[in-house]
Amino acid sequence: MWGFVRKIKDFGTRRFNTENNYSSFSRARRNELKEKHPEIGGEERKKMIDEEWEQKCRERENYENRMLLNRDFYLQDTLKVAYELLGKVIEHQTPEGTIAVIINETEAYTDYDPGSISYKGKKTTRSSWMFTDGGNIFLYKSMGIHLIWNIITETPDRGCGVLVRGCIHLRGTEFLNGIEKVKNVLKAMDGPGKVTKKLRIPMEYNGTSIIHPDSPIKIYDEGYIPQNVKTTTRINVPNDLPWRFVCNEFLKNNEIYP
Predict the structure, then answer these.
(1) Looking at residues 17-44, what average pLDDT do you find?
(2) pTM of the entire structure?
(3) Mind listing the pLDDT tens digit for each residue in 107-117?
(4) Domain containing 57: what range?
(5) Into how many domains does the chain fold?
(6) Biological process (GO) annotations (predicted)?
């Protein structure tokens, strides 16, 4: 299933090696801008190139210092995983390009939770996917329309998972299906259906492992520290527990994002 991903990774590596040198990057971008936007003057063009280079340097620092979340992370208590996923970066390598977002809203579900489809160990065609390995992907359609993404937690006998309810764009905005038109970045992916749609997560990922070496979608710790986390009851779950976690600001390098 992951065969096409290797080609994407190889292409990304070659491209980064070329752009890692400022002179090469500057020359290539200058020629590209001259061809596509001849109306832009020399000084403005140089300013744009310098700003793009600075952004790429920051991204390179993220790549060098980030840490991939391994299976041990997902085997922790589900509430702990749901909370600690805030600020983590989802990176999805698609045929069009790489998309990266910061998780800013999650919900926890367990087998002793009346709001969960795995309550009391109940196994159905849908809930059986929750009784798999921690770190597996569980996708299902809500109301037969919206594709919802969950990450399985703890051990296969538990039936636990975390729903990724919301994200904030970070990199690859040109591939996010019109997200650049959304003025409020917190509204672009403020629902589980929007998350899977913007990230272009297909149903074929259901049951696959997010920690598999060839998985095109992974979650990293890039050092974004959640600020002022809010804990509330979950959405559309009556008489519920405070198992929903939301955060709209993250601290990194003494700067607040977004």
Answers:
(1) 77
(2) 0.75
(3) 999 988 888 87
(4) 3-65
(5) 2
(6) base-excision repair
